[in-house]
Automatic annotation (TrEMBL):
Membrane topology: Single-pass type II membrane protein
Keyword field contains Transmembrane: yes
Protein name (Swiss-Prot/TrEMBL): Hexosyltransferase
Assigned protein family: Belongs to the glycosyltransferase 31 family.
EC number per UniProt: 2.4.1.-
Subcellular location(s) of the protein: Golgi apparatus membrane
Organism: Plutella xylostella
Highest taxon of the lineage: Eukaryota
Record carries keyword Transmembrane: yes
One Pfam match: Galactosyl_T
Keyword entries, A-Z: Glycosyltransferase, Golgi apparatus, Membrane, Signal-anchor, Transferase, Transmembrane, Transmembrane helix
Length: 181
């Protein structure tokens, strides 16, 4: 299943395109906020809430930004390999002066974390920096966080990656054809 999450569009033209997409495919989750980089944490929380409500039996949740190419066969192998894991998040771990955090381009969570993270929201100071905010939620929920090279930035060779950031929309099809044809 593929679902696109977004806040409300600030531009009316973009909003009408999103409305047409939602009506045609039913694949949009629209939060009650303006979609912007400052609201990335709200977008992540909307994703968790939607997954908890609409996909209660899904074993994993994968968050991916719109500029990221997802290598679906590798992701499927990854989740099959980790199917018995619980309370775990995988992604590209980064370290800065403010500490360690999970990069926001792409990460995978065991679905049992959705409720635990949402319950933690009210105990943490909100941050518009999604990666750091989600990291604090994970720490507060006593979740394990693991660095996954296939989600690293920069990624390994696309053939070994789970997700490749900064792939332009038109480049995604070319990359898929390069890998699988």
């Amino acid at each position: 299943m593929s679902v696109v999450g977004a806040g409300s569009a600030a531009a009316p033209r973009r909003g009408s395109r999103l409305a047409r997409e939602a009506a045609l495919h039913g694949d949009l989750v629209v939060g009650n906020f303006t979609d912007s980089r400052r609201n990335a944490s709200l977008r992540a929380l909307s994703m968790l809430e939607w997954a908890l409500d609409r996909c209660p039996l899904a074993p994993f949740i994968m968050k991916v930004e719109d500029h990221v190419f997802v290598n679906v066969p590798n992701v499927l192998r990854f989740v099959e390999h980790h199917k018995y894991e619980v309370r775990t998040a995988w992604g590209s771990l980064a370290r800065e002066a403010g500490g360690e955090y999970l990069r926001g381009d792409a990460y995978i969570l065991t679905a049992d974390l959705a409720g635990a993270l949402l319950r933690r929201v009210w105990r943490e100071a909100y941050s518009p920096h999604e990666a750091r905010f989600v990291w604090r939620l994970l720490a507060g929920a006593a979740a394990a966080a693991a660095h996954e090279p296939g989600l690293a930035a920069p990624p390994p060779a696309p053939a070994r990656a789970l997700a490749v950031p900064r792939v332009p929309f038109k480049g995604a099809l070319a990359l898929w054809e390069q890998l699988y044809h």
